C-alpha cells in the first residue's frame, strides 16, 4: 500500500494522472467511480483535461460503487444522478457506458447479481476510485461487513446517515436507510485501488485503514491485502498516521517514471 500525503489539489491531479495514463494505455479501460465529496476535484480535473486536452472516455466503461435504495429516480442525490452531473455529462462516455447498481429495481437481490455479472463481463475494473467514511466504510460496506462480500443490500449506520445529511438539507429523516453496494471482495477484484481522503474527520479512519489490524470493524483495512492500493491523503487526514514521516520520505524519493 502506498500512502501519498499532499494538498488536496495535488491529490486530485495524481488521481487524474492515474486515470489518464490508464485511458491512454487502454482506451476501453473500465473505471470504478465513487460518489461523495472526496472525488469531486478529480472529476473537475478529468473534465478539464477532456475539454482542454482531448482526453477521451468514448471507449471506456464505468461502474459506480453504490446507490441509495428508496430514493426517487429524479432525486438530485440519487447517486446515478450525482455521477451524471459530476462527471458523466462532462466528458464523452458513450450512451449506457456508465452503470450503477439499480436501487429502484423490484428485485434488489437479482439487481445485485446482475451488477456483479456486468462488472465481470466487462473484464473487471482497471482503476477504482474510493473515498472512506468516518466509520471506516469503503463504498457502503459499513463496520461488520464481510471481507468476502459481493454486491448486496446494506443498512447505513447512523454515523453515515448523519455524515450524509449535509446532502439532504441537513435533514436526517431524508437520508435513505438502505443502499446497494459493491462488496469488499468486489472492490478487491479491481486491479488498482485509489482512495482519497481529506480533512481531520477522516484521520482515525485513515490511520486504521493503513496501520490498523485487518478487521470487519474497519472495513477499509481489507485494502491492506490488495497488491496495488494507493492512499491519497492531505495533512489533516494524515494527522494520525504513525509512520507519516516515512510515507513522506518514501514518496519524496520516488523516481518520477514510476507513477502511482
Ligand atoms: C460513495 C462511497 C462512500 C464515500 C464515503 C466518503 O460512493 O462509496 O464510501 O466515499 O462515504 O464520503 P465523502 O467523500 O463525501 O466524505
From TrEMBL:
<feature type="site" description="Part of the allosteric site">
    <location>
        <position position="145"/>
    </location>
</feature>
<comment type="similarity">
    <text>Belongs to the glucosamine/galactosamine-6-phosphate isomerase family. NagB subfamily.</text>
</comment>
<dbReference type="InterPro" id="IPR004547">
    <property type="entry name" value="Glucosamine6P_isomerase"/>
</dbReference>
<dbReference type="Pfam" id="PF01182">
    <property type="entry name" value="Glucosamine_iso"/>
</dbReference>
<dbReference type="GO" id="GO:0042802">
    <property type="term" value="F:identical protein binding"/>
</dbReference>
<feature type="site" description="Part of the allosteric site">
    <location>
        <position position="154"/>
    </location>
</feature>
<dbReference type="InterPro" id="IPR018321">
    <property type="entry name" value="Glucosamine6P_isomerase_CS"/>
</dbReference>
<dbReference type="InterPro" id="IPR037171">
    <property type="entry name" value="NagB/RpiA_transferase-like"/>
</dbReference>
<keyword id="KW-0119">Carbohydrate metabolism</keyword>
<keyword id="KW-0021">Allosteric enzyme</keyword>
<comment type="function">
    <text>Catalyzes the reversible isomerization-deamination of glucosamine 6-phosphate (GlcN6P) to form fructose 6-phosphate (Fru6P) and ammonium ion.</text>
</comment>
<feature type="active site" description="Proton acceptor; for enolization step">
    <location>
        <position position="66"/>
    </location>
</feature>
<dbReference type="GO" id="GO:0006046">
    <property type="term" value="P:N-acetylglucosamine catabolic process"/>
</dbReference>
<feature type="site" description="Part of the allosteric site">
    <location>
        <position position="152"/>
    </location>
</feature>
<feature type="domain" description="Glucosamine/galactosamine-6-phosphate isomerase">
    <location>
        <begin position="8"/>
        <end position="225"/>
    </location>
</feature>
<dbReference type="GO" id="GO:0006043">
    <property type="term" value="P:glucosamine catabolic process"/>
</dbReference>
<dbReference type="GO" id="GO:0019262">
    <property type="term" value="P:N-acetylneuraminate catabolic process"/>
</dbReference>
<feature type="active site" description="Proton acceptor; for ring-opening step">
    <location>
        <position position="137"/>
    </location>
</feature>
<dbReference type="GO" id="GO:0005737">
    <property type="term" value="C:cytoplasm"/>
</dbReference>
<dbReference type="InterPro" id="IPR006148">
    <property type="entry name" value="Glc/Gal-6P_isomerase"/>
</dbReference>
<feature type="active site" description="For ring-opening step">
    <location>
        <position position="135"/>
    </location>
</feature>
<feature type="site" description="Part of the allosteric site">
    <location>
        <position position="155"/>
    </location>
</feature>
<dbReference type="GO" id="GO:0005975">
    <property type="term" value="P:carbohydrate metabolic process"/>
</dbReference>
<comment type="pathway">
    <text>Amino-sugar metabolism; N-acetylneuraminate degradation; D-fructose 6-phosphate from N-acetylneuraminate: step 5/5.</text>
</comment>
<dbReference type="GO" id="GO:0004342">
    <property type="term" value="F:glucosamine-6-phosphate deaminase activity"/>
</dbReference>
<protein>
    <recommendedName>
        <fullName>Glucosamine-6-phosphate deaminase</fullName>
        <ecNumber>3.5.99.6</ecNumber>
    </recommendedName>
</protein>
<keyword id="KW-0378">Hydrolase</keyword>
<feature type="active site" description="For ring-opening step">
    <location>
        <position position="142"/>
    </location>
</feature>
